[in-house]
């Protein structure tokens, strides 16, 4: 498995398995299949309500803990300092783990300064190997690390052919923060798998559209966490390291950028109100 080195020296797989929108009843089987076919990084979150099932799959896999890279995320509701510490303990109990590989603040709303300082404490105590954020704009991310002690190691951003995050990618590279893509397939929006540009590139390499998208992200230095509940698609998504896109093909992919999300608008007030006030527990 190809890896990337985070700014604290921790090695992170270049491709992992995401469980967003996988129902809890299907999660253990899906994660077990993913581990069986070769994935070693699993990405979940407290707000996905499937941490327990992820943990069960890990325990039943027979794979040594040190071979795995497990990520979960802290929800906005728990961004006060003490709440963040309690939420971390809840996630660890559900996952059944002694330590976590990567812990992310899930969204840039609420008291994320207090949350970050709680996460810094957990990191310094050795309970987490790497810490980071999700969906933080470069401005908010820069402000966060300029006024705290530990620089985030990862920023997980919506990143795919239609929303390429070019400026954010440049910023993260300059600052030594790993860019990780959520929704690398744009959650299927805009008929992405039948896009004529992507399909033409795929045909030249005898690959699928999904292979091309993940390889394109990989060549940009972006870590990916594709999701699937189908074992054959899980295998397909791993098959991205035996071909290379040419400069011309990379430019053709770059031309697909629309500069905005087809999934949701971070600047929409109704959206930010919903995310910022959404509760996942009593």
Q: Can you describe this structure?
A:
The protein has 282 residues and is α/β, with parallel strands linked by helices. It has a single domain, classed as TIM Barrel, CATH 3.20.20. Helix content is 42%, strand content 15%. It contains 11 helices and 10 strands. The strands form 2 sheets. The protein has an 8-stranded parallel β-sheet with strand order 3-4-5-6-7-8-9-10. It has a two-stranded antiparallel ribbon with strand order 1-2. The longest helix is centred in the first third of the chain and has 15 residues, at 81-95.
Condensed summary:
With 282 residues, this protein is α/β, with parallel strands linked by helices.
Number of helices: 11
Order of helices and strands: EEEHEHEHEHEHEHEHHEHHH
For the record, what is the CATH homologous superfamily label? NADP-dependent oxidoreductase domain
Q: CATH fold name, please?
A: TIM Barrel
In percent, how helical is the residue content?
40-55%
The proportion of residues in beta strands is: 5-15%
Distance between the termini: 40 Å
